[in-house]
Amino acid sequence: MDGSWSALIQQAFGLLFSFDPEVWSIISVSFSVSLAALLITLLPSMLLGFTLAFNQFKGRWIITNIIQTMQSIPTVVIGLFAYLLLTRNGPFGDLRWLFTQQGMIIGQMMICAPVLVALSQAAFTSIDRRAWETARTLGVSWPRAVWALCRELRVPLLLAVIAAFSRILTEVGCSMMVGGNIMGVTRNMPTAIALETSKGDFAQAIALGLVLLILALILNFTLGMLRGKAQPRSH
Amino acid sequence: MIKLVATDLKMQFEHRTLFEAKHLHFCQGDVVHLRGDNGSGKSTLMKILAGIQTPTQGKIEAQGFQPGPWWRSDSLLGKALYLHQHPYLYDGSVEYNMTYALPAPLREQPDIKQRISESILHAELGHLLQQNATLLSGGERQRLAIARAYIMQPKLLMLDEPTSNMDKDSQQLVLNMIAKLKHQGTGLLISSHQSCELTQLCHQEWKIAQQQITTSANVTSSYQPLSTIASSQSEQTKQEQQYVSAN
Ligand SMILES: Nc1ncnc2c1ncn2[C@@H]1O[C@H](COP(=O)(O)OP(=O)(O)OP(=O)(O)O)[C@@H](O)[C@H]1O
Ligand SMILES: [Mg+2]
User: Fold this and answer.
1) Which of B114, B142, B168, B247 is the least buried, fewest Cβ under 10 Å from its Cβ?
2) What domains appear along chain B, each with residue ranges and CATH number?
3) How does it sit in the membrane (chain A) (predicted)?
């Protein structure tokens, strides 16, 4: 390693605050891909979580277990799966989405959805059945009744969103395999850190690492504040 | 005529039969007292009629209601409003809970506004409007739940032990609101395991005993223990006093 630690860190801050175009392009790829994946999966995942929590039907148990398992599959394996789907000869090869942001979004959606479904199912299971019954018997429509539950469960549901988002924003394996780490197109923070470190260019890696670290801090403090506010109800 | 008709109703929980009934009519204008011991299935029957629980057997038809949109045309939900024995209140102000079920544009209509302020007045919740509803006392919660139902102007309303755990004043408030609803022609089904002032409003009785629901006309008014007569007299004098002080 050439240069001392302090020099490296100074360089890293320099890159961030001089608005180095390369660094900021990497950051923007990260956020646009992960936000897109999150926003696309959010509503369907929550609705599935709600359905699994509130309805007794055949196959519920097995779906729940599959989703639980999917949460713990390593992201490289999901990346491999997405790669096989998107490769030229694969079932979705005609889309030409391999090594594009669309491909990365698909991969991250597969990582994000199980987390959202499992955590929102847990949240919806925890609510008092009367919350649902009250809304429905008062004549409130189905979507508005679901919305009322989401409002009651805003803390655990927000926790689910934050957990899912931080998982896809920080994962390396899937982005590397499906995105291909192309500068300006598919290079995001985790893949850039991996590459720059292997090249020995630590300043950029540290700069991006700092961004992830600060983000993790912000998200976790938000979580902590929300958890702190949530109180058990007496009725 | 607006009514719910249940035929060949049967409810079981894991092979344990809770109750059976050949025919049940619950019509607008009816005021029915639903009797039965603890665990006989009063709450369950009401939930079935409200459409939030499905019976093991039998069907329930809603007749005479305005046809809803096609996707909920065969649903019982929202037809006979059910008030839980222990009402659920949403995390939010008392005011939010009261008007929650009204679609936002309706809240501004003058007649609905009138109805809202009426129900606030009757339930004596005016001083609590901005308080978080989850912090209310048991009696206040019950009053809020009834006010919330009152605003919806239901054709049929089912009240599950509405005055249990209430002091005399709150009971009187609830009694007045229910009497008002009766006067407006709302069909009422009131469960209570004992006779009280509330059940004296009823002119029909449904009784769950030995797993059967039997219906009969006007039993409660002939069956009136001395204590309730005495207390209703004292209520009357109290009302007169209120009347005097209001003038
Ligand atoms: N979902 C359920 N699964 C199994 N058993 C149930 C269920 N719901 C109610 N029961 C049983 O059905 C019986 C009737 O319950 P219900 O709440 O209708 O009684 P109730 O007449 O309202 O009693 P109370 O006067 O105490 O309010 C009880 O023994 C209860 O344990
Ligand atoms: Mg009950």
Assistant:
1) B247
2) 3-246 (3.40.50.300)
3) Multi-pass membrane protein
